[in-house]
Amino acid sequence: MTQRITVLGATGSIGDSTLSILETAQASSTEFEVYALSGHRQLDKLLDLCQKFAPKRVAVPTEAVATFAQRLKAANLSVDVVGGESGLIELAEDPQVDTVVAAIVGAAGLPSTLAAAKAGKRILLANKEALVMAGHLMMQAVRDNHATLLPIDSEHNAIFQCLPEPIQQDNTKIHQSEYGVRKLWLTASGGPFLHKTYADMAAANIAEAVKHPNWSMGQKISIDSATMMNKGLELIEAAHLFDLPEAKIEVVIHPQSIIHSLVEYSDGSLLAQLGSPDMKTPIAHALAYPKRIDSGVVPLDLFALADLEFIRPDLNKFACLRLARDAMQSGMVATIGLNAANEVAVKAFIDEQVKLTDIALINEQTLDTMAQQALQAPSHIDEVIAIDQRARSIAKQIVAKRYC
Ligand code: NDP
Ligand code: MG
Q1: Sequential DSSP letters for 133-167
Q2: Fewer CB atoms near the end CB (10 Å): N or C, the chain?
Q3: Looking at the whole model, is its pTM more than 0.70?
């Protein structure tokens, strides 16, 4: 049967990798059909993708709907155009769709990802921020609506692959301890500043911060990798996804990015997934699961591998990782606050208002201010968004007061 796929965030880095796999797969089989796409700023690129994949529907920002519809018409393409957040939600819950690739960056991806869960879709999750902000609500929606959540974040995909099949089939119901899962090990590359000093980090410009040693990714996640906030977000993502307390999730720096993560079992076994650092592998895995398809990734040459290193992270230099652990222990208000503050702080860094090392300080001060307000844990997405907005405004005030 053909799997109808919607790619939300089709114009981004994950969108590129996903569509490149689908292009190859479509050339040789009818297993996959690109049903809908979304873009935000890169609308020329989205138009090219419409020409290439002929989707039935497309989502763009509300103000761009009329112009984009005209451009499609001029190109002789018959595509339904929807706009804004409600348009993204409409695509996520479209009854024609089997699979939603959630690849929008940041909090903007939450409403459509949650809508896909509520509509019982098969979700290929890249948008880790959705779990960081609303992990409990997301997992509840997955359970209640028999949705399937397949992680494409490489570490989580690696862990998924190393878990026993019954847990893979339904990781929301089975207690991990029954299968002897003792710990998860998330690997981290350490980013471009692993072997640099804190002073080097403080002096870094954007080009240096986004220059990731192993992975080619979007701007925000690349900066998050430089501060190791990315690994902090992934720690929270893993705790929700695999229903484990954060204390059972270790982070280890593995600069070669060959082992993508590991599962430790009670009998002493450590299972790992290895591969070239290319997002096409986890995406292809999730697209075809439980089958396997060609991802176009060059296989690892084990004979060419030099030493594999494992290093304990320095939580003073990479304070964002410590903040993530603390936030996970505090609860949802703190994880929403951390994610929101981080988005504000990363933007301030891109706008050259603050230094790379200020990101952790802004995040921490925002969390301290929020802790004094003793907010209640949210039980609905509107409350999640209200807390997110409050955290953003606190973080913006901190940036304005201290750094501008
Ligand atoms: P990119 O910045 O490359 O792409 C982001 C996508 O989201 C683009 O399609 C962009 O549209 C769209 N977008 C941005 N803002 C909005 C908005 N306000 N409303 C609707 N759409 C929006 O990011 P990545 O592909 O790198 O990352 C996507 C997600 O995947 C993130 O959550 C990231 O953490 C996660 N991820 C990424 C990995 C990677 O290797 N890149 C690895 C693991 C996880 P446009 O470009 O048209 O403006
Ligand atoms: Mg990752």
Answers
A1: HHHHHHHHHHHHTT-EEEE-SHHHHHHHHHS-HHH
A2: N
A3: yes
pLDDT digits (tens, 9 = 90+) for 342-362: 999 999 999 999 999 999 999
Q: How confident is the model at residue 29 (pLDDT cuts 50, 70, 90)?
A: confident
Looking at the structure of the chain, the number of domains it has is: 3
**Please, are residues 236 and 127 in contact by the beta-carbon 8 Å criterion?**
no
Contacts of 174 (CB under 8 A, 6+ apart): 166, 167
74 — phi, psi (to 5°)? -60, -30
Whether the per-residue pLDDT at 404 is higher than 80: the answer is no
pLDDT of 204-223, one tens digit each? Answer: 999 999 998 888 889 999 99
From 6, 7, 11, 14, give the residue whose CB has the most ligand 1 atoms within 8 Å, as the site to mutate: 14
Tokens linked to 55: 């989707």
Q: Are residues 178 and 211 in the same domain?
A: yes
For ligand 1, atom 32, name the residue with the nearest CA: 127
Q: Which residues line ligand 1 (CB under 6 A)?
A: 9-15, 39-42, 103-105, 108, 126-129, 153, 215, 217-221, 279
DSSP 277: S
- 232 three-class SS: helix
Write out the residue range of the structural domain in which residue 344 sits.
331-403
The reply to whether 238 and 264 lie within a common domain is yes
Per-residue pLDDT tens for 176-189? 778 999 999 999 99
Residue 173 has what pLDDT? 64
Q: Which ligand is nearest to the CA of 231?
A: 2
Q: Residue 47 CA: which ligand is closest? A: 1
